[in-house]
Amino acid sequence: MEHKGTKRLETPRLILRAWRESDAGEAFANWMNDPEVTKYLTWTPHGDVAITRALLKAREECKRPECYHWAAVLREGDVLIGDIEVRAVDEYQAVGAVAYCMGRAWWGRGLMTEALTEVLRYCFEEVGFYRINGVHAAENIGSSRVMEKCGLLYEGTRRKAYRLLLTDRRVDIVERGILREDYFARRKGSDQTAEPVSSADTRRN
Ligand SMILES: CC(C)(COP(=O)(O)OP(=O)(O)OC[C@H]1O[C@@H](n2cnc3c(N)ncnc32)[C@H](O)[C@@H]1OP(=O)(O)O)[C@@H](O)C(=O)NCCC(=O)NCCS
């Protein structure tokens, strides 16, 4: 892999860019303090914008090339609407895991599918990941659809594997993943672009 970090990415409706501490007020107001957004997540609503600010300060300071964490900004109106990252990056395995969330006001418009499609393109075509993992609560239909539409295949369900932080209720967790060959096969199907020969494994061998 050739790590390139949180490079600015663009989609028809979104700009994906690095986080800034000054995003705190907008992120807090738009989703980071909303229990409906955090319902299935591994963190709880911030409660105080100072928590958001401290978090975003750390993100702004993370300049490591293996750090992939974008703020999603709607081009129309220049509004900060969400968050998408590739975390748990394992260098030797060339594997990472996607995670994302977005303000409720923008759900159901295909925006996270658009963001994840571009992040996957970047991961496979520019950075050289071999595999991207995704997990979601089985009952989180929106997230399930986003991953499905972006080509992350169903690989199994871990029964009652996660206890929701706000309600203590245990939920099943679905495991998904997309391999580089899956990605390029999908792409080839849609626009005839072949996998580049200088892929990560080729370089390593
Ligand atoms: C998950 C989330 C990012 C989806 O973002 P989004 O921009 O609304 O997703 P998209 O519009 O690209 O696609 C969502 C799809 O799920 C469907 N969907 C969403 N919620 C649904 C529900 N409760 N029941 C059935 N379908 C649902 C939408 O209709 C759409 O389907 P379609 O494209 O087949 O019509 C957003 O709901 C969110 O931020 N949720 C809270 C945080 C979260 O759960 N993050 C993921 C943790 S794994």
How would you characterize the overall build of this protein?
- The radius of gyration is 17 Å and the shape is globular.
- 30% of the residues are buried.
- The chain has an 8-stranded mixed beta sheet with strand order 1-2-3-4-5-6-8-7, with helices on both faces.
- It has helices at residues 24-32, 35-38, 49-61, 111-127, 141-149, 180-191, 200-204; strands spanning 9-10, 14-18, 68-74, 79-90, 95-102, 131-137, 153-163, 170-179.
- The chain has one domain: Aminopeptidase.
- It has 7 helices and 8 strands; from the N terminus they run E-E-H-H-H-E-E-E-H-E-H-E-E-H-H.
- The longest helix is centred in the middle third of the chain and has 17 residues, at 111-127.
- It is of the alpha+beta class.
- Residues 197-205 have low confidence and may be disordered.
- Coenzyme A (COA) is lined by residues 37, 40-41, 100-102, 107-113, 136, 140-143, 145-146.
Summed over residues and divided by their number, the pLDDT gives a mean of 93
Series of secondary-structure elements, N-terminal to C-terminal? EEHHHEEEHEHEEHH
Corresponding CATH superfamily:
Gcn5-related N-acetyltransferase (GNAT)
* Gyration radius over CA: 17 Å
Query: What is the number of strand segments?
Result: 8
Distinct ligand kinds: coenzyme A
The domain count comes to 1
Q: Classify the beta-strand content into a percent band.
A: 25-35%
